[in-house]
Amino acid sequence: MTGSDPSAVMRAAVLLGTGGPEMLEVRDDVPVPSPGPRDVLVRVAACGMNNTDINTRVGWYSRSVTSATSSQGFAEADPTDSAWGRGGLSFPRIQGADIAGVVVAAGEGADSGLMGRRVLIDPWLRDRDRPADRDLAGYLGSERDGGYAEYCTVPQENVYPVSVGLSDVELASFACSWSTAEHMLQRADLRSGETVAVPGASGGVGSALVQLAKRRGARVVAVAGESKRAAVSDLGADAVIARESGDIVAAATAANGNSFDVVADVVGGSSFPGWLEALRRGGRYVTSGAIAGPVVDLDLRTLYLKDLQLHGATVYAPQVFADLVGYIERGEVRPVVGGTYPLEEIHAAQEAFAGKRHVGSLVIVVEPAVSRDPSPG
C-alpha cells in the first residue's frame, strides 16, 4: 500500500443503531481506514444525501414497517431485516453513498495511476468473482462504511475519474439519485417521442428523471408541490402538475393529452392504482422507491388486461454508472443542489431532507483537517 498513515484519525458521522437522529454521532477520533487489496482510499470532499440513508437509519426497509418514510425510528422495525437487502446491518456504521473526492492511497494490486485523481464513486458494491449476481451486491454506507467521513475506502472498480468544471458539491449530487434515475429509464426502455409521468419530480431522483428523460427526447409530465413547480419546469418538464391539485393522475393525463408510455415513480402510496390506469396498453411502470407508502392496491385485471410491464430498479450493471459519468463530462445534464451542510450539521441536514422543501439533492460538505491527513505530500 502507498500513501497512507495507519495511525491517523478522522471525523465521521457514525450510525450507532436503528432509530431517530440521535443514533447519528459525529466523532473526531475514528481511525482512517486502510485500503485492502485492489481497493483505494478516497479523501472525501463532499457526499450527497439520499433516501437510503434515512430509510436505513429508521429501519423502514423492514417488512414489519408498512407506512410512509419518516425521519424518526420505527419501533416495529425488525433489526434482522432492516437493511435494503432484507438482512441485518452491523453497527457502528458510517453512511453516505454519493462521494466526490480524490484518491490518496492505493492498496496492494490497485492501480497507482488513480493516485491524485478527482473521482466519483459508483455506490453499488459487486462481488469481484460474480459481479453480475445481484444477490451478492452490497451498498456503500450500508454493507460497507461510506462517505460521511473525511476518508473512505472503495474497490478500485467503483472509482470513476472525472474531468469536468463542476464543484465537489455539484459532483456529489449525482451518484445515488442520478444513477437510480438512469437505471429506472433504462429498465423501462424510455425512447425518443414517448411520454413519461414523474410523480415525485422535485427530489434528487425525480429531478434527475426529468433531465434524463428530456435527454432521451421524451415528453415529461411531472408532479411537484406548488412552490416547486417553477423549479421543476426549469429542468425541462413539458408540464408540471401541482401535488395539491386534487386528482393528480387525472390532471397529469389531461396535461399529456393521452395515456402515458411510462410512469417513473418513487412515490407509491395511494396514487399507485391510478398511475397504472394512466398507462397505455403495453405501457411500462418502473419504481425505485415508495416514500408515500410501500403497501399499495393492485387490481390484477389492470395489469394483465392492459398488457402492462412492471419494473423494480435497484441493483444496476456498472454500465449504468459509466453512462451517467459520460453525460456529466459531456455537459448533457446539470446538477441540482438544493442545499449544503457541514458534516457537523448532519442532523439538521437529515431533518431538512425529510421536510422535502428543497429541489434536487442535499449535500454534506467534508473538509479534511490537514493535521489528520494520512497522505501528506
Task: State the gist of this model.
With about 375 residues, the protein is of the alpha/beta class. About 25% of the residues lie in helices and about 25% in strands.
Q: How would you characterize this protein structure?
A:
This protein has 377 residues and is α/β, with parallel strands linked by helices. Helix content is 23%, strand content 25%. It contains 10 helices and 18 strands. The chain has helices spanning 51-58, 168-172, 175-188, 204-215, 229-234, 248-256, 272-277, 300-305, 318-329, 346-355, and strands at 9-15, 24-31, 39-48, 93-94, 98-106, 118-121, 124-125, 138-139, 151-155, 159-161, 195-198, 219-224, 239-242, 260-265, 279-287, 309-312, 337-342, 361-365. The strands form 4 sheets. Strands 3, 5, 6, 9, 10, 17 and 18 form a 7-stranded mixed sheet that branches. The protein has a 6-stranded parallel sheet with strand order 13-12-11-14-15-16, sandwiched between helices. Strands 2-1-4 form a 3-stranded antiparallel sheet, with no helix packed on it. Helix 3 packs across helix 4 (204-215). The longest helix has 14 residues, at 175-188. It is globular. The relative contact order is 0.17.
What is the approximate shape? globular
Indicate the structural class. alpha/beta
Order of helices and strands: EEEHEEEEEEEHHEHEHEHEHEHEHEHE
Radius of gyration, in Å, reads 20 Å
**Fraction of residues in helices?**
10-25%
- Could you tell me the mean pLDDT? 93
- Total strands: the figure is 18
Major beta sheet summary = 7 strands, mixed
Kindly report how far apart the N and C termini lie: 16 Å
Runs in which pLDDT lies below 50 for 5 or more consecutive residues are: 369-373
What percent strand? 25-35%
Specify the number of helices.
10
